[in-house]
Amino acid sequence: MLQLVVCSRSRSKDATTTNPLRSSDWPFAGIGCNLNKPTFPGTTLIESRDPNILPKVTLDYLGTAADRASARECVRKGYGLIQSAAMQSVLEAPFGLEDSIIASGDELDKFCRADITSNYHLSSSCRMATRDKGGVVDQSGRVYGTTGLRVCDASIIPTIPPSNNMWTTMMFAERIGRSVRDRQDVGQSSSKL
């Protein structure tokens, strides 16, 4: 799923400004292209039982051909939008991208890799699934291989939802919270709140 996000900001034309995005003398508009359902899950590796040792997280954005193709499609659509006659009537000049980058799949992949970042809807790093399918927690949020430890946040969503994940996370929290309160697994939890 692709999501175009349009924002307006001010930017300084002076290249020596230390933080040009915070200057207000040059208005500009930007288009952010989000891949809401990437196909590469990334990896999280816990290397120590010590809670002070951070896990090794590998995001590998655009790690699959499908993700790269989706990113190219989204950026090309966004670029087409800013190049449209309607936008040309209000834009002075585009910056950051040019026709030659858009025309080349390899150059566009380089552009996307250099400019990619998280859109802060991270999920699925401790996904709920059976152990043999790479799961970290069971349907009641219990962490495999531990006793007395549950996880109940967006990290347990089995696959990244194609939209913002707040409601999905709240649904998991309600079901797992009820199972803890009732001392029953999610599948056996009572219906009373």
From TrEMBL:
GO terms for molecular function: flavin adenine dinucleotide binding; oxidoreductase activity, acting on CH-OH group of donors. Residues 42-173 form the Glucose-methanol-choline oxidoreductase C-terminal domain. It comes from the Eukaryota. It holds the Pfam family GMC_oxred_C. Gene3D superfamilies: FAD/NAD(P)-binding domain (3.50.50.60), Glucose Oxidase, domain 3 (3.30.560.10). Belongs to the GMC oxidoreductase family. This is Glucose-methanol-choline oxidoreductase C-terminal domain-containing protein.
